[in-house]
Design a protein that fits this description.
InterPro entries: AGP_Transferase, Aminoglycoside_PTrfase, Kinase-like_dom_sf. The chain has a single domain (61-246), classed as Alpha-Beta Complex (Aminoglycoside 3'-phosphotransferase, Chain: A, domain 2). Helices cover 41% and strands 18% of the residues. It has eight helices and ten strands. The strands form three sheets. Strands 1-2-3-5-4 form a five-stranded antiparallel sheet. A hairpin with a 3-residue loop joins β1 and β2 (13-18). α5 (181-189) crosses α7.
Length: 248
């Protein structure tokens, strides 16, 4: 029998690997609905759905390896990063899904969530006040009208698989939907901004880097407490807190 590998596990969901099969267990059926629908609509390689029996979704493993992970080493040639940029542009140019995604929350809702989270981070002593206030100002630069795009919503480099210079698949689509394309780009290069030029070479257009920095700060500020509560370490080298410090 194949060994059962725990890929990620926390209170909301867990992902297991058994041989060449990934099992995602999620008590929120709506999230699984989004994941399956988004993978069927996305014009980029995605895992093949083997079966689904709520609360479990089974998908086939992808060939190749991930580009890396936040806080860890990265792999892939400049051409591989450019290929990822081209795949992302193809996704952003695709017809819109019918639902808003993680990157598509309203400006007012995001501003309120940002204010509340910054207050909690300072009041509970999680982060220094100057670090929070500086990044809050940077984050507010992302809160402007945008043209909706088909976004992945959680495009960490660990979710993009490559084989050589080819993208073989993108995983974890539960946050997908309509949103700001720059949110995806900011998430993708978070902690690895040295690869942005390669990504944009494949993406095919220049972008507003101040807005990207805003999304990076906003995403990191909103993630710190939930990550701690789920047993992860946003203070690890190269992770969310380092990304916030980089704005200082």
């Amino acid at each position: 029998m194949d060994e059962v590998q725990v890929v990620v596990a926390h209170a909301e969901r867990a992902t297991l690997r058994v041989g060449d099969v990934f099992l995602k267990v999620d008590a929120d059926q709506a999230r699984l609905d989004v994941e399956v629908e988004a993978m069927s609509l996305a014009p980029v390689p995605t895992p093949r759905v083997l079966w689904r029996k709520p609360p479990v979704l089974a998908t086939a493993a992808l060939p190749g390896t991930t580009l890396g992970r936040l806080g860890g080493p990265v792999t892939g040639s400049p051409a591989a990063w450019a290929a990822a940029g081209a795949a992302l542009r193809k996704l952003h140019d695709a017809p819109l899904p019918s639902w808003p995604g993680r990157a598509g929350r309203s400006i007012d809702a995001l501003a309120e969530e940002l204010a509340d989270e910054c207050d909690l981070l300072v009041r509970n002593g999680v982060l220094p006040a100057d670090l929070v206030s500086r990044n809050r100002r940077v984050a507010e630069g992302a809160l402007r009208p945008w043209t909706p795009a088909f976004t992945h919503g959680d495009l960490q480099i660990a979710h993009v698989f490559v084989d050589g210079d080819e993208v073989t698949g993108i995983i974890d689509w539960s946050e997908a939907g309509q949103g700001d394309a720059l949110y995806d780009l900011a998430t993708f290069v978070l902690g690895h901004e040295e690869h942005l030029d390669d990504v944009l070479a494949g993406y095919g257009t220049d972008v507003d880097r101040d807005v990207m920095n805003g999304w990076s700060s906003l995403r990191s500020l909103l993630a710190v407490r939930p990550l701690i509560e789920q047993g992860f370490d946003p203070f690890a080298p190269g992770c969310e807190v380092d990304a916030l410090r980089a704005r200082m």
